[in-house]
Amino acid sequence: MFLWKSTFCIFFFHLASTQWSNYSFPKDFIFGITTSAYQIEGAWSEGGKGLSIWDYDLHQNSSLVVDKTNGDIACNSYHRWKEDVELLKHLGVNFYRFSISWTRILPLGGKDTKINDEGVKYYNELIDNLLAEEILPYITIYHWDLPQVLQDKGGWLNETLIEDYVFYARTLFQLFGDRVKHWITFNEFFQFCEVGYSDGQRAPFVSSPGVGGYQCSHNALLAHGRAYRMYEKEFKSIQGGNVGVTVDGSWCDPLTPTSESDQGAAEQFTQFNYGWFTYPILLGNYPPIMIDRIYVLSKQQGYESSRLPAFTSEEIKMIKGSYDFLGLNYYSTYLCTFSDNFSQPSFESDCGVLSSQPESWEPSAADWIKYSPWGLRELLVWIKEHFNNPPVLITENGWAYNSLDLDDTERIHYLNGCLSEVLKAIYEKECNVIGYAPWSLLDTFEWTMGYTLKFGLVHVDFESANRTRIPKRSYNMFRNIISSRRLE
User: Fold this and answer.
1) Known catalytic membership, residue 188
2) In whole angstroms, how far apart are CA 47 and each of 16, 105, 106?
3) Which of 142, 197, 352, 464 has the smallest set of CB atoms within 10 Å of its CB?
4) Where are the domains of the chain?
5) CA-CA distances (angstroms) from residue 106 to 41, 42, 73, 113, 168?
6) How confident is the model at residue 17 (pLDDT cuts 50, 70, 90)?
7) What is the dihedral of CA 301, 306, 308, 310, to 10 degrees?
8) What is the tens place of the pLDDT at every residue in 34-92?
9) Which residue out of 83, 194, 378, 396 is catalytically annotated?
10) Sign of CA dihedral 57, 170, 437, 484
11) Closest to 181 measured CA to CA, from 130, 220, 114
12) What does the alpha-carbon distance between residue 227 and residue 393 come to, in Å, rounded to a whole number?
């Protein structure tokens, strides 16, 4: 029975791939690839760089990472960035999404602190060389590496950080905005807020269930809105750039497709996990289901007010529509049903939905990613229907191995599957998808999983002093797709 199912799935995928290989990506559709500063740069204490929360926490306690490693050297891209640009050039991408290390530009982090000229020089050289190869830099302003000096003041739980972030963003616009025309304010609010300030599973490893994640995200959303409006007012007419934001989203199918209850659970999951951040930015406020449920549960738990902070009318006006494009990170799909079997207070209890993945789905080395590319199309359609079809740039999408994977056929299968679903979303559902960038160019330091997970289209030998890079089979596959603008 299992063999029959597997054969059927492969046969069905072959038909789907064959069908969609006849379609070209639209002429204005752009292809890129992604990394982030802490995960590839290394040089943690070189060139005048300050201490980030990841530097501090992993030096204090190496057991926070499964293999007890850190990003001190990582891919050593601070010194080997020219090799990375050559790989990008050969790959043929239109854009490269990377992040700026806050502490490499502002070692002391806060507003009105001194700019680090060596850090500016590093990013100037990278940006100028990318542009010389006709590769557009898409810069993520914040990808989780908060200056430790700001975390000492409470980090994203302290609303004063909003001013520090706006100062930092303005500094980047002033330094690089004459050449950089595409900015992403934040990467994945859920991951650095809910996982970092509520679950305590990522830096700064603060455990405040049901409270910390909401306060963090509220301040970060306001910081995003402030930065967007500041660029709009002070820089857009001069520099002519655009500012977006990246939100991670998993799709959820009902556990039992014919169950109205499970259908409701799937929608509630998406409202809480994805709408939490997209609703304020696109519509001005949190999803009504979040506002109502968290208020009621907070009262039942003895809180005087809702654990979910409220926006003022002025803040709603400021944050609504604060985007030029919406970045989407998609990896996997889940099956959902309602449940009240969660500790309280917690985000899981507030959401009230139990999500799972069947054992029969093809697994990756990451326990949270199983082969489910259809969810990407479904989420794109959901975005279109809820937000009037905004421009969506897929800023991450990837498949993990845990060993040497030069012949990475599973990754090729996954990426082809996801890109096939993107074509379906564009041509069948008229979704406004403007581009695609997989995670990631290189095998990287994968946060608390260290170097045990490999997402790169290029292998990095972390045992070698040179951090030798070797393109994988998926690198050549993606290169061919970019060149032909068709699936293989």
Assistant:
1) yes
2) 50, 10, 12
3) 464
4) 14-484
5) 16, 17, 20, 7, 8
6) very low
7) 180
8) 999 999 999 999 999 999 999 999 999 999 999 999 999 999 999 999 999 999 999 99
9) 396
10) negative
11) 130
12) 20
Q: Which of 44, 61, 34, 43 is nearest to 147 (CA)?
A: 44
CB 173 within 8 A of CB 235: yes
Distance CA 70, CA 393 (A): 30
Whether 142 contacts 186, CB under 8 Å: yes
pLDDT, tens digit, 9 for 90 and up, residues 183-242 = 999 999 999 999 999 999 999 999 999 999 999 999 999 999 999 999 999 999 999 999
Question: What is the spatial distance between Cα 63 and Cα 398, in angstroms, rounded to a whole number?
Answer: 26
Angle at 176 between CA 322 and CA 116, to 5 degrees: 115
Question: Which position among 41, 83, 188, 194 bears the catalytic label?
Answer: 188
pLDDT reading at 321 higher than 90: yes
**439 is written with which tokens?**
């995670």
What's the token pair of residue 130?
């990318």
Q: Is 396 a catalytic residue?
A: yes
pTM: 0.95
Residue 372 CA neighbour count, 13 Å, CB half: 23
Residues 406-430: b if buried by 16+ CB within 10 A, e if exposed? eebebbbbbbbbbbbbbbbbbeeee
Close Cβ partners of 99 (under 8 Å, ≥ 6 residues apart): 35, 36, 37, 139, 140, 141, 142, 143, 145, 187
Residue 80, both tokens: 């080997």
- Reading the block at residue 244, the tokens are 């977006």
Radius of gyration of the chain (CA): 22
- Amino acid (one-letter) located at 3: L
Structural tokens at position 184: 């992403």
Question: 435 and 95 in contact (C-beta within 8 Å)?
Answer: yes
What is the CB neighbour count within 10 angstroms for residue 379? Answer: 23
**Spatial CA neighbour of 53 closest among 451, 448, 345, 479:** 448
The first and second tokens of residue 286, run together, are 């949190």
CATH superfamily of 14-484: Glycosidases (3.20.20.80)
Tell which residue, 436, 487, 440, has the closest CA to residue 31: 436
